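From the pipeline queue, job 12 of 40. The input is one protein chain; the requested action is below.

Action: predict structure.
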Amino acid sequence: MRTPDKGIPRDLLERANCIIIIPGLKKGAFGFGGKYGRGFAACRRGSGWGAPAGVRIEGASIGFQIGGSSTDVFMLVMNANGMKRLVSDKFTLGGEAAAAAGPVGREASANTDLLMTAEILTWSRSRGVFAGLSLEGATIRPDSGENERLYGKHLSNKEIITGGVRAPRSASALTSALNQYANRQRHT
């Protein structure tokens, strides 16, 4: 957020219903490729952000490819359909969920119709630079093990995201940052 000319457009962040953050998504390939990452999703609740829910992202690819990388991935869930998918058992980006690479920069969202069709907008960050990212075919599912570690008991993502689950103290840095950078005061 400190580089507004090259970051996720703030107005899109302020309009998002939920955010999914996957730090260090691993991608590797040698003929066959794959990607795997774990992170958290948080959705708006009232005037702020709710408790985070654990998520995993997985995907495979075939074709001429070689190499590996680690990338931070950010996804904005822009509407109610995207939120319904987020609380489901799993969904595929580009399959069940209409996903698109998000625009970058302060003015990038002003002339785009992505908000009309995409349920989820995606970005990646490598070495401080943001770029739109296509994650077609990647599956997102709840990470129940992470939820149990975080909350000390079994909770589904649906219970965390739509219920009255209180965020643990260990999540305060995340919810504080979301409240600082992605409030809706200008849009309400």
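Job complete. The longest helix spans residues 172-181.
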